[in-house]
Design goal:
Shape: globular
Number of helices: 13
Order of helices and strands: EEEHEHEEEHHHEHEHEHHEEEHHHH
CATH superfamily: Ribokinase
Strand content: 15-25%
Helix content: 25-40%
Radius of gyration: 19 Å
Number of strands: 13
Strand order of the largest sheet: 5-4-1-8-9-10-11-12-13
Largest sheet: 9 strands, mixed
CATH topology: UDP-N-acetylmuramoyl-L-alanine:D-glutamate ligase
Number of domains: 1
CATH architecture: 3-Layer(aba) Sandwich
Structural class: alpha/beta
């Protein structure tokens, strides 16, 4: 896919979290202390990840979110500066902390995760309204669900009224108000998230095509369902298209969804039809699995283009 001029402008509304991960020989029982084998700390949060993904793929990324007034926030602004993400509309909240996730991983690969959302939970419609001038000039809005309904609804309403495409990645999945879904141009759940949004069990025995059709009946224009190594399913008024993924050496699948969504927003903003845009996104998602941890795995434009063959 050839780059276009000017670069697409994409606003990303969502979360920033710091991930604190410890590997242990086994999980402790209540009241027990277990010595860990290793510890790692790194940036995360779906909103921040996707904004960085957009920037690496050649888009002009603006991130709208909230952090605490602490050293983790300092690290976040330094990260966004290095990656070329405009963080002008990220606010510091002195009344709470930057979002933090604690992950304990046992040596057999199981994990236990706790999250303290902190400033992500405090993001509200007022913060979105303060950034409203930004939405007026963007090609697309990209959102996820690690923040509350209020800021998502405000962002979707404002961006839609300004004529931007609205891309909503419903992760983690929850049922959403009609006021949001009716303004979504592209909904991008994985197979489990799609079912959860309909109030079904995540492994409900329903074919993906009918699940996507039911999501469109809620008011969504287009559903792009990711299916892991099987690629993606695109469901529109014009029909159903299956898009294959790419064969790569998988190391860590953690950031695949964030990379996919960033790439889809960039490709759509550059005017690619949904089938080609989804293929580009599948390539970016696949490449993200070839490196350990999310940020190191987010690919640049040249790497994705080479895999797609354009």
């Amino acid at each position: 896919m050839a780059s276009t001029e000017p670069s697409p402008r994409i606003a990303v509304v969502g979360s920033y979290n710091v991930g604190l991960t410890m590997v242990v020989p086994r999980f402790p029982t209540p009241g027990e202390t277990v010595l860990g084998d290793s510890f790692a700390e790194g940036p995360g949060g779906k909103g921040s990840n996707q904004a960085i993904g957009v920037a690496r793929l050649g888009g002009e990324a603006t991130f709208v979110g909230q952090v605490g007034d602490d050293s983790y926030a300092d690290d976040a602004f330094a990260l966004w500066d290095r990656e070329g993400v405009d963080a002008t509309h990220v606010t510091r909240n002195p009344e709470t902390h930057t979002g933090v996730g604690f992950v304990i991983v046992s040596e057999d690969g199981e994990n236990e995760i706790t999250v303290a959302p902190g400033a992500n939970d405090a993001l509200d419609a007022a913060a979105i309204d303060a950034a409203s001038s930004e939405f007026a000039g963007v090609d697309a809005l990209l959102c996820q669900l690690e923040v509350g309904d209020e800021p998502i609804e405000a962002a979707v309403r404002t961006a839609s009224a300004a004529g931007a495409d609205v891309v909503l990645n419903p992760a983690p999945a929850r049922e959403l108000p009609a006021a949001v879904l009716e303004r979504v141009d592209y909904l991008t759940p994985n197979q489990n998230e799609a079912r959860l949004m309909l109030g079904l069990d995540p492994d409900a025995d329903r074919d993906d095509e009918s699940v996507a059709a039911d999501l469109r009946a809620l008011g969504v224009d287009t559903v792009v369902m990711t299916r892991g190594a099987a690629g993606a399913l695109v469901v529109t008024d014009g029909g159903i298209e299956a898009v294959d993924s790419f064969d790569v050496d998988v190391v860590d699948t953690t950031g695949a969804g964030d990379s996919f969504n960033a790439a889809l927003a960039v490709a759509l903003s550059e005017g690619l039809p949904i089938g080609r845009a989804t293929r580009f996104a599948c390539a970016a998602g696949a490449l993200a699995t070839t490196a350990a941890e999310v940020i190191p795995g987010l690919p640049d434009r040249e790497t994705v283009a080479a895999l797609v063959g354009e």
